[in-house]
């Protein structure tokens, strides 16, 4: 569509945009429309799909008119501030509402708990309706906006989001954009034989196309859901199910699907959601002969969502849940013409996986190599930094980097699986394998942070030193995500060092999915004892609280300039610096169980001059050297700054 036609479209519409907020909508539409049209027509070049473009514009307008006034005001406020998500003031927690404190009301009751710890950003796991029985923790959705009765009512949720807003608590919810459940209204209509809805998914009467796809589609859950298609008897068709057999992949080559999903996205945002987690977005576009992940069309589609959302609700931002190779993750911030126009936030899955590698190897070489040699993210984006979440830990390292260190990628991954999942007697870790494939030795790791870091074993053995060491590791890894640059996201339960929960093995719907070992119910008994009892839980909670408070006092931690990585002279130590041109903080971590040293001459090279009245901000202790050496005890973690 050429510019003149776009002008015509805009002129017809702009008459309706009378008051201030409508005018702002018109302005945003005028700014984005060229990009929206070029993305649309490159995804949908076919003649018969052109008529959906004006329909899309109509839909955007309707959706804007439907957006609650209070949220429109917030949109304008945020648009003025810009990049609010890069602030050092944010500290997040991820939780399952039912496992945390029963339901939405229960969550509301715990707002003081978040305040005490300093949490002002919540990722609530799916709370909309889903099939009974297996439903992938709610990632098989029956609706994108109907609240499941187990969590409460829509009214309660709206009241909660309003309260959260009044407390400046940011809310993040999932938008399961790649698939619906097989009970979703479209799926039901497809099963009933409605061709229109069969075309909302990838459905085929025979095996020819499914076979062609499966030649190159990798399996996501090979142990429990092999293959990428499922036969539906009632429909007499094969349907694409890249994840579980009950999760049907949406067919975005159909523009009706895009428009309908945009509406679902806005319905979610209009409940008062600030950050939308775009679940499994790498999979959005499928093409025979490819692995159908990270395809250029998937990027264009995400950008099209974002450009439309930015016009309708500019205060709402997108998080990319792209757990893919390091070089591919940063592409979700947008590249080339799309730079800064895809997702504002992405999971820093690379840093997460690298930290677990360094814990196992006690060395920081792969961490350094990867951070130094992977292109950095664009200025306007930010990370979600995390050490654990509800999913497994994939060993998504760049094989070339492993080889450069003289290691075999296959052997190295085997070592990591052994270290974390019970294959080595001497390892303190207690984790489980996830989706292990004995044929090729591929597998992933699951377990709670505390159990993977040795707390479970140490408590079993009543070994005080090991308990202290595990607590130090837990605080060190969290210290890194709190200072690295981006939004730190603590997984609920990790703030009190909760261990693996093996009860999933007794649940028919969960027993085959070992990720449930790290989805424990919050231990409120332990929380209630935090103030009165000195134990590992209180050390972790208080340690985190202190670091969160300090983070918020240090504008240098806003994600406006990237961390400077300083390759350390000691192979066990990781050092990076945060600076905003005025202040400097050096974050130093010892990944070894033995005391390690840094020589003053090396410290000089990175700008640390101990004679200049420096301290460790976390303990407040003055920086002291002995015989020109800075000494770091096992798993010690420092934030060095002006005293
Ligand atoms: C994402 C979720 C994961 C889920 C998958 C399918 O990766 O984090 O838990 O299984 O998407 O929806």
Walkthrough of the structure:
This protein has 643 residues and is an alpha/beta fold. The chain is built from 24 helices and 22 strands. Helix 2 packs antiparallel against helix 13 and helix 21 runs parallel beside helix 23. The longest helix is centred in the first third of the chain and has 24 residues, at 20-43. It is globular and about 75 Å long. Bound molecules: alpha-D-glucopyranose. Alpha-D-glucopyranose (GLC) is lined by residues 136-137, 139, 176, 243, 279-280, 321, 390-391.
Report low-confidence residues grouped into runs of 5 or more. Answer: none
**Tally of alpha and pi helices:** 24
CATH fold-level name of the domain at 564-642 = Immunoglobulin-like
Ligand list: alpha-D-glucopyranose
Quickly give the CATH architecture of the domain at 564-642.
Sandwich
Oligomer: single chain
Strand content: 5-15%
What is the helix fraction of residues, given as a range? 25-40%
Structural category: alpha/beta
Rg result = 25 Å
The major pleated sheet works out as: 8 strands, parallel, barrel
Can you summarize this structure?
Helix content is 39%, strand content 15%. The chain has 643 residues and is an alpha/beta fold.
């Amino acid at each position: 569509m050429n510019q003149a036609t776009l002008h015509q479209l805009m002129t017809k519409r702009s008459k309706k945009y009378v008051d201030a907020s409508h005018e702002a909508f018109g302005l945003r539409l005028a700014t984005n429309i060229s990009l929206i049209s070029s993305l649309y027509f490159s995804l949908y070049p076919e003649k018969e799909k052109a008529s959906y473009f004006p329909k899309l514009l109509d839909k955007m307008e309707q959706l804007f008119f439907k957006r609650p006034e209070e949220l429109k005001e917030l949109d304008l406020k945020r648009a003025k501030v810009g990049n609010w998500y890069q602030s050092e003031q944010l500290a997040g927690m991820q939780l399952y509402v039912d496992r945390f404190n029963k339901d939405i009301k229960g969550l509301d009751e715990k707002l003081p708990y978040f305040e005490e710890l300093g949490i002002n950003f919540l990722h609530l796991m799916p709370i909309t309706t889903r099939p009974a029985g297996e439903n992938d923790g709610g990632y098989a959705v029956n609706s994108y906006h109907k609240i499941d009765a187990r969590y409460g009512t829509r009214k309660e949720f709206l009241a909660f989001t309003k309260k959260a807003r009044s407390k400046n608590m940011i809310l993040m919810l999932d938008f399961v954009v790649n698939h619906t459940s097989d009970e979703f209204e479209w799926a039901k209509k497809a099963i009933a034989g409605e061709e229109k809805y069969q075309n909302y998914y990838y459905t085929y009467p025979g095996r020819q196309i499914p076979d062609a796809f499966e030649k190159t589609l990798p399996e996501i859950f090979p142990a429990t859901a092999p293959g990428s298609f499922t036969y539906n008897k009632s429909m007499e068709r094969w349907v694409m199910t890249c994840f579980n057999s009950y999760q049907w992949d949406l067919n975005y080559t159909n523009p009706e699907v895009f428009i309908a999903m945009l509406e679902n996205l806005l319905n979610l945002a209009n409940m008062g959601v600030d950050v939308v987690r775009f679940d499994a977005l790498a999979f959005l576009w499928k093409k025979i002969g490819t692995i159908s992940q990270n395809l250029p069309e998937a990027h264009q589609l995400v950008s099209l969502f974002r450009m439309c959302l930015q016009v309708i609700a500019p205060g709402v931002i997108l998080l990319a849940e792209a757990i893919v190779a390091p070089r591919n993750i940063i592409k979700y911030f947008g590249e080339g013409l799309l730079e800064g126009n895809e997702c504002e936030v992405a999971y820093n899955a690379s840093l997460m996986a690298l930290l677990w590698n360094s814990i196992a190897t006690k060395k920081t070489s792969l961490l350094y190599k990867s951070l130094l040699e992977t292109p950095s993210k664009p200025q306007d984006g930010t990370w979600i930094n995390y050490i654990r979440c509800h999913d497994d830990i994939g060993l998504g390292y760049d094989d070339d980097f492993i080889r450069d260190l003289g290691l075999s990628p296959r052997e190295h991954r085997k070592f990591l699986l052994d270290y974390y999942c019970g294959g080595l007697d001497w390892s303190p870790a207690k984790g489980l394998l996830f989706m292990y494939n004995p044929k090729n030795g591929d597998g992933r790791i699951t377990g709670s942070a505390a159990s993977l870091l040795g707390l479970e074993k140490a408590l079993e053995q009543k070994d005080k030193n090991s308990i202290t060491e595990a607590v130090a590791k837990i605080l060190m890894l969290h210290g890194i995500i709190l200072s690295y640059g981006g939004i730190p996201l603590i997984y609920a339960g990790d703030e009190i060092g909760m261990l693996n929960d093996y009860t999933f093995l007794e649940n028919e719907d969960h027993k085959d999915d070992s990720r449930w070992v790290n989805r424990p119910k919050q231990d409120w008994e332990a929380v209630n004892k935090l103030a009165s009892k000195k134990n590992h839980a209180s050390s972790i909670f208080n340690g985190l609280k202190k670091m969160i408070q300090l983070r918020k006092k240090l504008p240098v931690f806003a994600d406006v300039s990237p961390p400077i990585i300083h390759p350390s002279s000691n192979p066990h130590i990781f050092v990076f610096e945060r600076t905003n041109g005025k202040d400097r903080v050096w974050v130093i971590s010892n990944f070894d169980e033995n005391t390690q040293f840094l020589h003053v001459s090396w410290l000089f090279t990175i700008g640390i001059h101990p004679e200049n009245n420096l301290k460790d901000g976390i303990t407040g202790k003055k920086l002291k050297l002995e015989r020109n050496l800075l000494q770091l005890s096992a798993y010690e973690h420092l934030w060095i700054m002006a005293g």
